[in-house]
Amino acid sequence: MRILFSVVPASGHVLPLLPLADAARRAGHDVAFLSGRGAAEMVPGFDVFEVGPSVEEAMAKTAQRLSGDDGAQPGLGAIEMFGGVRMEGYGDEAVRVSGEFAPDLVVHDVVDVVGPLVAAVLEVPMVEHRISGPLPAELLGAVADRALTGYASFGAVRPVPFAVVDPFPDVLLDEAERDHAPGRVALRPQPHSSGPSVKLPELPGPVALVTLGTSVREPEALAALVTSVAEAGASVLVTVADLDVPDSVRERVRAIGFVPLAQLLPVADVVVSAGGSGTVLAALAAGKPLVIRPFLADQPWNAERMARLGLAVAIEDPATAGEAVRKALDDENYRRTAMAVATELARLPDADQVLRQLLGRMPQG
Q: What range(s) does the Erythromycin biosynthesis protein CIII-like C-terminal domain occupy (predicted)?
């Protein structure tokens, strides 16, 4: 079988789809990605069709159109970037290269509009893959509506997925947020593991892992977070290659560059992050409490949700990160609650099991 994964060219969109793509490749299927410029370096070892702008280029174009609103926050900018800029002028090429690959199945990330177009034109079944907690239905509907002109040019109608893969577990959602639709397939969250194996430095505990992920570029805020955590007495692993911190805390800080979370989480006692869904779910799968300072996209929603559930301390001022880390470590309830969630997550089906479910449900003919 030939499976095409269509995804926005940003790590927060690409990485959640990798477990299923890896499972498909392990099962002997032909796998390729359809995305924009820059995506190939995120998925080494896979065939990648780069069609259209990188996410940075799409954001810049969106900002030009909307007087500075680049789509980093939910709203009109996000609607224009995902539904307009990502589609306009690139539909023909996306359909052409996808047709040459000849997929039997298209899997697209929840805000990607190109994958559904390809599935519609090539008349192949489609699966939607969520990448975060529930996004507002109004936002997703507006993105889909903005892309309708792309479908109209092909005389196509956006298809309905026969299944929805969801890595955001019910245990983290209110009852009103839970999706009980028969097409939903829960997927066990797992930390990103692709990348070089690194020998980590030995540090006295407690150890805080500080990461803003790959989407947030706020060096001053990161330095303030790290400094505050180190001043509170924790050793710090920070996922950048270099960081300017005061001499008074330098001995407790190790800048280690990009290392897969699967290698880092076992040595961490607490995770300080921007609240991206991938980092949050990976930390919880490992039973680690969080401190979250959100910046963009779904991060404020994740910060509020995790704080409400007793899994994280949410902050606004990076200078208070040290105090928040001490709270998360000293109050045993945070660790116990995180461990309870980790137990629930471990019961969910893994990517290999989910792939078998999807192929078993796939429409024939």
A: 225-358
Distance between CA atoms of 363 and 29, rounded to whole angstroms?
17
Q: Which of helix, strand or coil describes residue 209?
A: strand
DSSP string computed for 127-167: EEE--SSPPPHHHHHHHHHHTHHHHHTTT--PPPPSEEEE-
pLDDT, residue 132, reads 86
Q: State the residue range of the domain holding 164.
A: 2-188+348-361
The whole-number pLDDT of residue 217 equals 75
Residue 201 has which token pair?
């430095």
Model confidence pLDDT, tens digit, residues 156-195: 999 999 999 999 888 888 888 888 778 999 999 887 666 6
Q: Are 321 and 315 in contact (CB under 8 A)?
A: yes
pLDDT tens-digit map of 5-54: 999 999 889 989 999 999 999 999 999 999 999 999 989 889 999 999 99
Same structural domain, 216 and 313:
yes
Q: At 334, is the secondary structure helix, strand, or coil?
A: helix
Q: Cis omega (within 30 of 0) on the bond before 44?
A: no
* Helix axis angle, 321-330 to 332-346, nearest 10°: 70
Question: What total number of domains does the chain contain?
Answer: 2
- b or e along 87-108 (b: 16 or more beta carbons within 10 Å of the residue's beta carbon)? beebbeebbebbeebebebbbb
Q: Which tens digit of pLDDT belongs to each residue from 199-227?
A: 777 777 799 998 887 676 778 888 899 89
Q: Which run of H or of E encompasses 207? A: strand 207-211
CATH code for position 266: 3.40.50.2000
Do 182 and 220 share a structural domain? no
Give me the amino acid identity at 311: L
Please check whether residues 257 and 303 belong to one and the same domain.
Answer: yes
Dist CA 324 CA 207 (whole Å): 14
